[in-house]
Write a structure and sequence with these properties.
This protein has 13 helices and four strands. The strands form two sheets. It has a two-stranded antiparallel sheet with strand order 1-2. A two-stranded antiparallel sheet has the order 3-4. It is mainly α.
Length: 314
Amino acid sequence: MFLEAGGLVVDKPWASIDEQINILTRRGLLDAGDYRRELSTVGYYRLSGYSYPLRQPAPEGSPRRRLDRFVPGTRMHHAVELYEFDEQLRLAVWRALCKLEVCLRVDVGHVLGEIDPFIHLDLERIWPSGAMHRRAVLFTQKLAQTQSRSTEDFVTHYNQTHDGRLPVWVATEILEFGQLVTLFSLAPFEQRRRIADKYLARADELESWMRTANFIRNICAHHARLWNKRLVIRPLVKHRRSDPTLSVVVEPAERMYSALALIAFLLRRGDFIDEIRGISHVLSSFPTDIPGVDLTHMGASLDWKHQPIWTNSR
């Protein structure tokens, strides 16, 4: 343990770039000195997430999963390769989610607006009690906060000329994606079903997949490690066991590959073939020279390229 200025006790002392290189070299990455630039621009801590799978497994019964020493033959080059692959994957997924998110905003606003342009302002009456009522109250509060913070010209126009009453197809343009998912969940079942039909999904499936997409979106937006992240929000796929396109994501549904396959499935709503191909192209570029690491670490099978979710988009 170390005592820093201010009296805080930490067990990880600050280290200069030279010290970081020495640490990595002692642990087995003999080429660490060649990556001074990456250590100073990407960072030791961020790169450690990509070097972790390269460390030796801990003995059975150990409280740790990995030792500090790296697998023999592993180089710093491999960790940087993983980082660069993940960076390209995040960019491809971000581009895909941008298309999907806008499409979902249009569909939710359009379908709900047909039955009532101001249905989003009446959710507490639609759900008069219970957990859904509490969710509706919280949604109304957050929508008001979002609208008050907005600097969009169209919001200013509605505030000045329409008492701030935004039609639902306008409100969906300023909602955070998580708020859009909440609005979808609070809509009457028939409207949720109609929206879900556009994505060839059940209403409960689409809500689950939207929440998964929002989780992935947040990872990409914060430049966090994506490729082998486990899903905190697992998508609902129990009704898809016999679906030739999506049966591949039933197991393991908590792995990132499942989420990418679902995103590709949802992108078919807008015929966004280029975005689907973009994700597939990056997956195909996974480095093949890293000892003991491949796409199965993210839940993909060895023959993933031949699965219908990708072959039908070529």
